Each structure stands twice: as structure tokens, then as C-alpha cells.
Amino acid sequence: MTFLNVEEYRRKARRLLPRFVFDYLDGGSEDEVALKENRRAFEAIKMTPRLLNNVSVRDQSVEWFGQRLPMPIVIAPTGLNGLYRRDGDILLARAASRLGIPFTLSTASNNSIEDVAKASNGDLWFQLYVMNRDFADQLVDRALAADFSHLVLTVDVAMGGKRERDERNNFVMPFRFRPRTIADILCHPRWLWDVGRYGAPSMANLATDMVTDPNTQAALLSRKMDASFDWDDLKRLRDRWPRRLLVKGLLHPDDAKRAIALGVDAVVVSNHGGRQLDIAPAPIDALPRFSIVNAPIIVDSGIRRGSDIVKAISLGASAVMIGRAALFGLAVGGEQGVVEVIELLGREIDRTQALLGTRELVRPTSGAFLPDARGALGAD
Length: 380
Description:
Order of helices and strands: HHHEEEHEHEHEHHHHHEHEHEHEHEE
Helix content: 40-55%
Number of helices: 15
Number of strands: 12
Strand order of the largest sheet: 3-10-9-8-7-6-5-4
Number of domains: 1
CATH topology: TIM Barrel
Largest sheet: 8 strands, parallel
CATH superfamily: Aldolase class I
Shape: globular
Structural class: alpha/beta
CATH architecture: Alpha-Beta Barrel
């Protein structure tokens, strides 16, 4: 079956996955206002084409710290990917390697840092949650030993967001299946054969002799992070990690400027896909304010079309992170499904470029498109 867009992959994933799994993937916090606004904000942005340009050859590659990415996409860090396909983290990493784009492994992954590194020869980034300082240091050292190129510190999780879909489904760990959940699982035989028959996937990065604190796994499973982590701790992390360091979850440009001043290499403008603070602004709306930040900017949350990616680059992003869209592909088609979703987005980027009349992705400094007071894009 051929899927025409990311939404069709989403609908198929909804049919294939048990409800508690799909709701964990698809849901947001509280009333899901931020989740919905992430999409509305992209849809509100318009771009005016400049025509009669030669666009017979188009290029969507971007520069990232001296290297060239074939498209401005990084696969975002997402936890519990083994719920969608067995060895989901490895499948995502392999798909990213095939596409020539980076893959970001979450602290809350179901495949370990070491296993993912062995299974993929692509550009691997590691996302860090800080539950306690000693364990965070262990994770950083392991990622460095496994030759991960970037460390991505997530900072918008002083505590977990109130995800009411998960609460209604009794989505807790260890899993406690109620009769209706068991009945739902039995109605999804493909998922049961691929994932369910092996039992609940484990937090592989915590299944190691190096983790001796029994409270650490419980903290990660319940998203109870170290709420005391502050700017001094960020500076200590910068001193410990010798490679590229990103901070993810920023929505205020002053926070980004302070992070860069401490030696952070780039930032990710994000509201955690609408899964944390439900009153947070859409990252794409916040993005133009980050023009004062003298560093590469990545944006995520709500991206479903290649045209969304073109809009993000036009508003100042160096690249985007793709989370749910890649996971819909993973649920539907495994590694190949992820490749298909990203390639679909790439084709949409290319078509958008041709119809806008630009051979390359347009950055704000080009003068071709400028944000107006409401964030829309128009010709100057």
C-alpha cells in the first residue's frame, strides 16, 4: 500500500497499535492545547512564491558544523521505541544511516547505547536525561566511548507533564494490564507477535552493572528528573563532554544566549511535542525570536509536511527534528517505513522549493522571505 502523506501513516499506525501504545505515541499533556497549536502554527504560515526563476535543479542539503546533511532533518530522541517495533531504536538508527542523516538515541531507549552503536554506522547523537548526577556522568562516558558525535541535553523535564491519555490507560511501569487492555492487545495480532510476545521492553541503558542505584530506573520511568539541575551543572557537563553539545527544550532566546555563552554549540527550540507544559507556545512561533542567538538552531514539534520544514528553515532554523512522523513509519513498516516517511518529506521539500521558485532552502539572510508580525512569510 502506498501512503501519500504522514497523516496516512499515522492512521495506519493507529489501526496497528493497541490503544495504550498509540495514545502514548500520539498524545500530549492536559487538554493537549500545545499539541494542537503545534500544527495550527505551521498551518498559519504562508509563503509567497517568486517565479520565473530557473529551478530545474534543486538542493535541499544544509551545512551542519562543516559537514553536509542531504536534507535538513535529524531523527529526534524518543523513548520506548520498542513498543512500536521490536528493536525500534536500532531500526531507527539504521534508517537514518541509510538516509545519511543523524539519529538521536534517548536515555529512555529500549536498545542500549552500545547495541545501537554496534548496529549502525551512521551519525549517532545521544540525548541525556539527568535523574542523578552520577548516573548522568556514566551515560555521558558511555556515549563518548561508543563514539556518539553529539550530546543533546533535554532541560524541559523538571517534572513529567500530566499526560491524561496515559493515566486513563493506566500506562505505568512496570506494566499492569487490565482486562480491557489485554482484550485490546489480542485484537492486534501483528503487534502481539512482533512486540507483545517478548513482554514489556526494558530500559536497556539502565540494565547494566554500572547502574547501582535502584531509584534511578523508577525515576526515569516516571520522568522524575533532577529538578535542581541548573546553569552551573550545565557548565560542568560542558567541561565533561568534549564534542558537540546541544540543549533541547528552550523557548526563550535569552536562555539560548546564556547556554551558548557557557559553550553550548547549538540549541533545540522545542515544547517536547506538546507533552510537557500545555500552555507553552508552539516552537515555530517562538523561532523568529531566536534570530539574536549566534549559533545553529534546530526546531521540532508538529512537523508533518515537507513544507513545514521549508517554513522552519525560512524562519531561521538550521535543521528540524522529526519525532512522531518517524515513529508512525516505524510502527507501519519498521526500518523501511521510517525511510519511506523521511523520503516522502524530502520529496515534499523538493516540490515546495520548485513551486516557491527557489533552488535552495531559503534562509532569512537571503532577503527572499521575511517574517511579518504574525509569523507569516511573504515576498519583500
